[in-house]
Write a structure and sequence with these properties.
Layout: H1 2-7, E1 8-11, H2 13-35, H3 38-44, H4 65-82, H5 86-102, H6 110-122, H7 133-137, E2 145-147, H8 149-168, H9 172-175, H10 178-184, H11 193-196, H12 200-222, H13 224-245, H14 250-256, H15 264-271, E3 282-283, H16 289-305, H17 317-320, E4 335-345, E5 351-353, H18 362-370, H19 372-387, E6 393-404, E7 410-411
Antiparallel strand pairs: 1-2, 1-3, 4-5, 4-6, 6-7
Helix pairs in contact: 2-4, 4-5, 5-6, 8-12, 8-16, 10-12, 12-13, 13-14, 18-19
């Protein structure tokens, strides 16, 4: 049964057209980062870049280097869409995207993580066996079929993403609509829709729709009687998200995924000249079938386990943020904070408060005041800066407070702990984060 699920031959039209959409979208993402000034504000202007902890060696290229970096990624996107030197193009893009993803998190987005995961999958999928320059130049790779595990790996990934996103919303501040109200306040200046987004009925609609859509969209697309309706709803849902939250290519990538749910004949009738090709269907197990099953199973297992790790870490993830990333906990909270960093210089005997504006951009200031890993990283950055001048220091978080979802500010970081001498553990709670009182918010 497992072999049949993984290795039945099916029409590859959805994969081929998805490759085209995918290439176009990542090209737009890459070139758009240049045009909108994202590269300049995120990777060039900052004196210090908050990389993922453990990947501090990944730093932005000097001068105009990051512009060339993104031009290369955009060009690779075009090559992927055209299906030219596909394997090398998708592997190169995946490596470059992973690099830029890990070298900064001030603009962290769950969708950037999903883009990496899909790029990684596409490195192994036969997405250039048709509708590509590669297939035109090499008749040996041409085929109209693919193994069924390609489709089901994409479907499984989407099911995991949407299901965890739905479950994560089942907590107090989402269910009483207060988090929606808090997020919509920053949208009040939008033309026409800004005042509408402040209405209570809109907050209720967004909250309920978010839970129901995420929970049901994949099953609804899989079931033929509800497929067209689900697709129409998905268009409205994702376009609305694009307008309201301005989250780049993700809404359109999410719509591109729907090609895997429609009948391949429908896809071919819309996008292909060859409407009804002769397909060699049936089951033919490749010699590496055990390896493929093991790799796919391990990947899915990791994707299932990783998002629940916060349940095994002390205190509440909404407060500590420990285990929040890579967990599909999307648009769940609005965090703001305030903090001063007190430096005790053991060499000179002086104590001073750091002028954060001398080191960080406005976006980074918002992050370093509200997120513990940013606070820890900046403390270690200060230690390195002073050490380069021959000074030994301790760093303390002075008057650290945060507000979550518009609630009153509460003390966040223990002011008596020298953060410059603390170690970071990705899978354990850090005691210098003060205890929360969010027990009623448990999911």
């Amino acid at each position: 049964m497992l072999k049949g699920l993984f290795f039945s031959k099916i029409d590859n039209a959805p994969l081929l057209i998805f490759r085209v959409f995918f290439g176009i979208l990542i090209a737009l993402e890459s070139f758009g980062a240049i045009v909108t000034g994202w590269i300049k504000s995120t990777l060039i202007i900052p004196k210090f870049t908050f990389s993922f902890i453990g990947f501090e060696f990944l730093q932005p290229l000097p001068g105009p280097g990051m512009y060339f970096y993104f031009i290369i990624m955009g060009t690779l996107g075009i090559l992927i869409a055209l299906g030219y030197k596909y394997r090398w193009s998708i592997i190169a893009f995946t490596v470059l995207w992973l690099g830029v993803y890990l070298m900064q998190k001030s603009s962290y987005n769950n969708h950037y993580y999903l883009l990496f995961l899909i790029s990684l999958m596409m490195c192994f999928f036969p997405a250039n066996t048709g509708l590509s320059i590669d297939a035109r130049q090499n008749a040996d790779i041409r085929t109209n079929v693919m193994f069924s595990y390609v489709k089901w790996m994409i479907v499984a990934q989407l099911f995991i993403v949407y299901t965890y996103a739905s479950v994560a919303k089942l907590y107090g501040d989402w269910l009483d609509f207060s988090v929606i109200e808090s997020m919509m306040q920053s949208k009040n200046g939008y033309p026409i829709i800004g005042p509408i987004l402040q209405q209570p009925w809109v907050h209720k609609t967004i909250a309920v729709t978010g839970i129901v859509f995420d929970a049901l969209i994949v099953p609804a697309l899989l079931w033929k009687p509800t497929r067209k309706t689900a697709f129409i709803i998905a268009i409205f849902f994702h376009i609305s998200n694009s307008v309201i939250f301005q989250i780049g290519i993700f809404p359109y990538l999410a719509l591109a995924f729907t090609v895997f749910f429609f009948d391949p004949n429908t896809i071919r009738s819309i996008f292909f000249k060859d409407k009804k090709p002769r397909l060699e269907l049936g089951t033919k197990t490749p010699s590496s079938h055990i390896f493929i099953i093991m790799c796919c199973s391990l990947y899915i297992l990791v994707q299932i386990i990783l998002p629940v790790r916060h349940h095994f870490i002390e205190d509440h993830v909404l407060w500590t943020e420990e285990g929040h990333r890579l967990s599909w906990r999307m648009m769940l909270r609005n965090r703001v904070g305030k903090i001063h960093f007190k430096v005790v210089n053991h060499t000179s005997g002086k104590t001073e408060l750091v002028q954060l504006k001398d080191h960080l951009t406005r976006k980074q200031l918002r992050k370093v005041a509200a997120y513990p890993d940013f606070i820890w990283q900046f403390s270690h950055y200060l230690r390195q800066e002073y050490r380069s001048q021959g000074d030994s220091i301790s760093v303390y978080a002075h008057n650290s407070q945060i507000s979550i979802n518009g609630k009153p500010y509460k003390p966040f970081i223990n002011p008596a702990i020298d953060l410059a001498n603390e170690k970071w553990d990705h899978f354990k709670h850090h005691d210098w984060i003060l205890p929360s009182d969010l027990d009623d918010q448990r999911e």
